[in-house]
Amino acid sequence: VSVTSFVSTPLVDADALAAAEERLLGRVLRTPLVPSLRLSDELGAQVFLKPENLQHTGSFKVRGAFNALLARAAAGALPPGVTTFSAGNHAAATAFAGRALGVPVVVCMPPGAVATKVDAVRRYGGEIVFTDDLVGTWTSVAEERGYTALHPFDDPDVIAGHGTVGLEILADTPVPDLVIVPVGGGGLISGVAGALRVSDPGWSGRIVGVEPSQANAVSYGLRAGAPEPPPVKQSSIADGLAPPFAGVNTLAHVRAFVDEVVEVTEDAIRDAWWEMLDTTKMFVEPSGAVGLAAIRSGLISVPAGGVVVFVLSGGNASRTGLAALSS
Amino acid sequence: VSVTSFVSTPLVDADALAAAEERLLGRVLRTPLVPSLRLSDELGAQVFLKPENLQHTGSFKVRGAFNALLARAAAGALPPGVTTFSAGNHAAATAFAGRALGVPVVVCMPPGAVATKVDAVRRYGGEIVFTDDLVGTWTSVAEERGYTALHPFDDPDVIAGHGTVGLEILADTPVPDLVIVPVGGGGLISGVAGALRVSDPGWSGRIVGVEPSQANAVSYGLRAGAPEPPPVKQSSIADGLAPPFAGVNTLAHVRAFVDEVVEVTEDAIRDAWWEMLDTTKMFVEPSGAVGLAAIRSGLISVPAGGVVVFVLSGGNASRTGLAALSS
User: Fold this and answer.
1) A22: buried, middle or exposed (CB in 10 Å: 19+, 13-18, 0-12)?
2) From the CA of B77, how many Å to the nearest CA of chain A?
3) Which residues are CB-contacts of B164 (< 8 A; sequence separation ≥ 6)?
4) Which among B116, B274, B320 has the least Cβ separation from residue A278?
5) Which one in A62, A157, B79, B287 has a CA-CA gap of 20 to 30 Å to B280?
6) Model-level pTM greater than 0.80?
7) Distance in angstroms (rounded) separating the CA atoms of residues B321 and B73
8) For residue B284, which residues of chain A lie inside 8 Å, CB to CB?
9) What number of CA atoms fall less than 13 Å from residue B1's CA on the CB side?
10) What is the DSSP-derived secondary structure letter of residue B85?
11) CA torsion angle for B28, B278, A309, B93 (degrees, to 10)?
């Protein structure tokens, strides 16, 4: 399957965001916005956390997955089943949404997926197919079973669902000067940046995405001008940020709405992971710490005294993974 | 120093709670009440978390310490300095409050205090005296320097300050059926239980305290009828719950307001610690997990479908302490 299998759609707009917000009411957790006095002191800013680690299923992914299924249901097109591919968080989220709506879910996952994430998919009744060929297996499953092939990050309803994170940030903070978002395939930052830019076209704040330099599908895609798979297999301690490629829609959203995407090293992520746990007391997975890694690496300048929001993408770290921190 | 050095005071009342709430406005974090869908599913109840790990300084202790200093300031009796004793969380909290009010703070801490907690005291400008004789050193420092000796949990203003946790729970939840509170010296549960019982004398819910069986000062004191030090030195992976003795006031509050105090093993705490991190995505220290340990040990029965609140006391776990989880 080549990148031409991606379907280009319009950028997220106010109607799509409002519809997502309404659909998700009572389905996902309206996460609080939590100030961090310690990060504020240490970074010389007013720092807030948007803790999607506390979200149902332990990551923001449930917003997009649920919105995608509910949008199809609203259009009278709830499928007999759904298949998707994921390192784990979108897999669990889709299983969770599918269970709530009575739709069977099959997820294609890499054989090395984090155990916590595998367990989560099973907890919510999802069926797992382990495969190195995520996209090939995904499209085969869809064809063989007559299921809808839900793209994990490039589907417009997934992007709009993630956009509710941005709407909630706007509702809860003073006007942010800087919003920092972890980047994998780019679905989260597409939705968040879209919500921020669309809700207030005059907003002058910055939105910065952060991805591991060993899993830089979005940066690579931006340079290539298309969601080409990077030549080296993507892999990072931030396992949630290592899809095989970006999307045509997420690249379009990043180009339209995001100021910059920066890349951080594995060592920087590991150090920032402990620092996030210790300073914020939020149990995040490594992916949730890349924003702080970027600041500590000098890649993002913090506006002195400004309002800074860290989107914490998820908290599905494994018990064995914690061992990396205890030494 | 014998237990006769404790000063018996009246039980916390509505006026003391209201005064504490007003004093602490803008000084401490109004922590959110966060539902846990996973714990709700697993325990068959509506489970909410009161995450004082997210509180300034990483524990609830700042509520009591700040209220104690502000109450003295309101009475025109802000001391030239304050000294207290603590395994760490109350130490950091008092240093934090002292810094805000310009009052020097000296804390007596055990030599084996968790590094994270030692760092926290220093971060907030507190002076540390390491000593095995916490109470003796505390009273000596007070005498030599002319400082106020602030009791870490038995001071009535400390108890009232902690009571604001209970007021916030009442404001944010449906009427709780069961509130579970970690117990060290008993200051937190005294305030929380006082707030719940005083605010609604007709409330029929249960309040259960949980302490490590290896650090059971309150259970021991209840049996002895006084805050006698248990014969064996108190020590637990839940380092925040191991004071040398309970207090006359905390014992009186527990007798008046609390249904039961149960004791959990070290193994149960260790298992529950990981389970809390994994299911709630809150970074708690082991002390914050004793409530779940008690349920998993069959010591607390959960009312089916009822509203259950876990008070998460703090999140100041050490990096090296995580090694206990990684095996």
Assistant:
1) exposed
2) 28
3) B17, B20, B21, B24, B28, B63, B67, B191, B195
4) B116
5) A157
6) yes
7) 38
8) 281
9) 14
10) E
11) 20
Q: Do B319 and A29 touch (CB under 8 A)?
A: no
Chain A residues near residue B34 by CB distance under 8 angstroms: 32, 54
Cβ-contact B318, B115 below 8 angstroms: yes
Q: Residue with structure tokens 């106010």? A: A14
Distances from the Cα of A133 to the Cαs of A120, A130, A139, A212, B142, in angstroms? 21, 9, 10, 22, 69
Q: In a 3-state reduction of DSSP, which class is residue A211?
A: strand
User: How many whole angstroms separate alpha carbon A64 and alpha carbon A156?
Assistant: 9
Question: Kind and range of the H or E element at B264?
Answer: strand B260-264
Tell me, rounded to whole angstroms, the distance of Cα B47 from its chain centroid: 20
State the complex-level ipTM.
0.95
User: Which of A93, A95, A100, A96 minimizes the C-alpha distance to A73?
Assistant: A100
- What residue has token string 């997210």? B54
A282, B282 Cβ separation under 8 angstroms? yes
Collect all residues of chain B within an 8 Å Cβ-Cβ radius of residue A320. Answer: 326
- Number of CB atoms found within 10 A of residue B176's CB: 22
